[in-house]
Amino acid sequence: MADTVTQIAYPEWTEYKKKNGLDPLGMQTSSIGVYQRLLPGISNVTLRVRYYGFYVWLCHIYAQKIGDTNPKSWQRFIRRAEALYALIAQKHGGETGVAGIQWAEKTLQAAESNVIDFAAAAEPGSDTYYLKQAWGAYGAAYASQLYELGIYGIALGHEIPIPGLEIGDPLASAFAEALGPLADKIFQTIQHGSVTLATLDTLASIRPSAISENSSERDCYEKILFAQAGLNRPTDQERRRTLLIILYLSSQIGRIPGVFDVRLTCFFDNETKMRYKVSRSQKEGTTWTRETGGCSPRNRSLRCCRTSR
């Protein structure tokens, strides 16, 4: 019998390389995969819904008035639009989740004249960038979700996005309707790459929080999120069900649900045969206690009973 040879595998040390970022080991990948299944078209970095309307209007107006299929031209146009959006949001104040808002704050504070030139900060590769990512928030956060939702469609023969027929075109029209005569002013300002302080005030109605409650634009967002805009794919229905769970949970506990509330709700279905009672305390906040019985969060039949101590 031949002698058995034992081999020992030793670790091999590789060259040290510093990596920046919030998740260098990719530990959040599984979590991202879960919430992308629960909320297709929405991510942890798509923070303001009005960006969806803003970007689809931009690609519509770009095709209509520029039409250049060179990706560099589209990239420059997008970056200028984002820089202008940040300036408008910062000038009005109180806006969160806006890309480049820190740059806009510093730029407005340092302004020595009535005119702000943002073209240089928006130029790809600029040292004075409003946002370091080459394609801005559009490329880093929103573009993939715009395609996922069907707001963007794929054009034949070039890489520039076009509005999706069922969802994108109506949303672009609704966004343009909300802007009214300001639409041309915004386009011209993006093209010029500079803006006056007075114009920033004039364009305040485009800021993320300025969606009119009774507008076609607002209706479009609701229809898109709840799968009533013309597309009825499995992913659209999954997003609809998840959002209905969150809304129903909110109505039961009487406030905006926290991360723990939603997470706990999503973990239980018909097979668990559990029901939860919500008890509220000023000191301890909201606590959840188990009861016997049945609940089905996925079918909107979660029962949360509020009691006072």
Describe this protein's structure.
The protein has 309 residues and is mostly helical. It contains 12 helices and 7 strands. Strand 2 and strand 3 form a beta hairpin. Helix 2 (50-65) crosses helix 7 and helix 7 packs antiparallel against helix 10. The longest helix is centred in the N-terminal third of the chain and has 22 residues, at 71-92.
Q: Biggest sheet, strands in spatial order? A: 6-5-7
Describe the largest sheet. 3 strands, mixed
Distance between the termini: 78 Å
DSSP helix count?
12
For this entry, what is the oligomeric state of its chains? single chain
Instruction: Give the strand content.
Output: 5-15%
The count of β-strands is 7
Describe the secondary-structure layout.
Layout: H1 29-38, H2 50-65, H3 71-92, H4 101-110, E1 115-117, H5 119-122, H6 136-149, E2 152-153, E3 162-163, H7 168-179, H8 182-192, E4 194-196, H9 197-202, H10 216-225, H11 234-253, H12 259-266, E5 274-281, E6 285-292, E7 304-308
Parallel strand pairs: 5-7
Antiparallel strand pairs: 1-4, 2-3, 5-6
Helix pairs in contact: 2-7, 3-4, 3-8, 7-10
Features:
globular; 7 strands; disordered C terminus; three-stranded mixed beta sheet; mainly alpha
Summarize the structure.
By secondary structure, the chain is mainly alpha-helical. The protein has 12 helices and 7 strands.
